[in-house]
């Protein structure tokens, strides 16, 4: 799920100790955000505020930032990029609001890279217009 790759022959599993060690290692790893990522977070926040159909607060914005950073850390990325921000946005959109602004399959968006890329373009177009 994390890297959207299919494991065809042999399932790779981490034991609890290895997972705990990995999470401990990445926990305090600060990520610098790309300009595109920070612009996307800002644009999404402004777009959500303009909708005026739900309450969208600074706390919601902070949640998206934390989720974005967590996604980047889990994938072992050196920076917080636009894809991690979009994953956080899709997660928030699929969980907090019943009236999503973009339709997507909640199961496919996180595991199908082609589908994610298609919906990513759609989401960026919607919030930037």
The helix content, as a percent range, equals 55-70%
Q: Tell me the domain tally.
A: 1
Arithmetic mean pLDDT: 81
Number of strands: 2
Q: What is the CATH third-level topology name?
A: Rossmann fold
Question: Which CATH class applies here?
Answer: Alpha Beta
Distance between the termini: 31 Å
The number of distinct helices, counting runs of at least 4 residues, comes to 5
Organism: Trachipleistophora hominis (Microsporidian parasite)
Protein name: Putative DNA-dependent ATPase MCM protein
Pfam family, one: MCM_lid
Domain MCM AAA-lid: 19-96
Helix and strand arrangement:
Layout: H1 16-27, E1 32-33, H2 35-51, H3 58-74, E2 79-80, H4 82-95, H5 113-128
Parallel strand pairs: 1-2
């Amino acid at each position: 799920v994390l890297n959207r790759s299919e494991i065809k022959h042999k399932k790779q599993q981490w034991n609890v100790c290895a997972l705990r060690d990995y999470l401990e290692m990445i926990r305090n790893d600060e990520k610098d955000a790309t300009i595109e990522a920070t612009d996307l977070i800002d644009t999404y926040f402004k777009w959500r505020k303009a909708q005026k159909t739900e309450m969208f607060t600074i706390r919601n914005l902070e949640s998206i930032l934390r989720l974005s950073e967590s996604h980047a850390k889990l994938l072992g990325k050196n920076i917080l990029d636009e894809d991690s921000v979009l994953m956080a946005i899709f997660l928030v959109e699929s969980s907090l609001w019943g009236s999503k602004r973009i339709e997507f399959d909640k199961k496919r968006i996180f595991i199908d890279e082609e589908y994610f890329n298609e919906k990513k373009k759609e989401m960026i177009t919607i919030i930037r217009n």
